[in-house]
Amino acid sequence: MNDSFFSIILILIFVLIIILLAVLGFLYYKEKMAKNKEEEFQNPKKDESDKTDKKSVFRFMEFDEVEDNMVVQDGGTRYLMIVECKGINYDLLSSVEKASIEEGFMQFLNTLKHEIQLYIQTRKINLSQSTQRYREKLEELRKDLQIEEEKYEDMQRLGNVTKDEILREIKEVTKKRNLYEYGKDLVENTEQMGENRDITTKQYYIIIPYYTDEITSAGDFDKREISSMAFSELYTRAQSIVSGLTSCDVRGRILNSQEIVELLYVAYNREQYDIYDFETYMSKSGYQSLYSVSEDVLEKKIKAIDEEIVKKANRKAVDAFEYATEEMKMKKRIIEEREQNMQKYIDNIAEQIVDSEINVLGEDMAKMTKDNIRKMTQRENERKEKEQGKQLTEEERKRRILAKKRRLMKERAENEKNQNRKKQSN
Fold this sequence. Notes:
By secondary structure, the chain is α+β, with helices and mostly antiparallel strands. The chain has helices spanning about 1-40, 95-110, 125-160, 165-195, 225-245, 255-270, 280-285, 295-340, 340-355, 360, 365-425, and strands at about 65, 70-75, 80-85, 115-125, 200-210, 250-255. The chain folds into four domains: about 55-125 and about 200-295, no CATH class; about 130-195; about 300-340; about 345-415.
């Protein structure tokens, strides 16, 4: 009886636990469904057609080769053509001109039927090439000036020319000289400007892609035919972009293969571009030898740390020298001050000694001693003044003796002259 009753109780407890778990599971499922509906209401799903494939603009640097003014990528499945843009200074325009430019740019964006990418490249300007060309021109001007100066000197020496011809030659020499001096100042200022700071410029580019998937039945054509078709399509797109940019006063130009290689070269060698001459390098090596000449990152870091150590060491040495110099000046000032006020310091210390022994000497004797100290100082000062006066008197006496000797020598010379004149007259 008891066993059966106990079994019934256990079965009831087990059934109640199952029912409780089922109720909890149902409540949890209901709450989760309500939460999902709320999230869907707040953040509705976007249509798959609205999704855009965002690609990095630097992907165009991953190239296979450069040919026919195009960048070939992904084994010939993607071609790029690059348009360089030269804009205007927007901030200097009036409000009407700005509105016109903005309207033209909106029209340009609306006419686009294919994707483009914008790329901005910052370059350091290498002034060494410019200054070298300036110096060559300056040397030509110097030779022309030298020829004109020699011609003018010959005209003056021979004297068989008219005054008008001389005046014309003077004007020509002056013009050549002024031109030479102006060129010389220009070269010096350009070199100084390049040494004091880094000069940078920004280049703006539009990247136009073309995919071989756009060609219907691309498998029926060989690689050369596909490249030719890609060039035709890209050239048409580039020309339409160049013409569209004119509506907003932006000048566009399609880059050739040499300029594309230079663009990629600068992108891979940003810091060393101003050191390595690209034109000379490419004329000797060709496209196949294009590679990165940048220093190793760790070596650059070591070099930067070494430069920082040397810089801080120099600064510390200069600061220590200045501190030592100031300390030396201060000591010299203290020495000069004590030399000038030596007697005053002696009197003060002497009076302090008397004050310290006032119990032994007594007040009256101490007072008399201090008066004697002052009198002794006064007599010492009078003696020094007399010695200085004697020194001045001695100097004055020597000066008078010297002046007397000069006067006697002058009188003797005059007497000799008079005697010579008398002899000549006799």
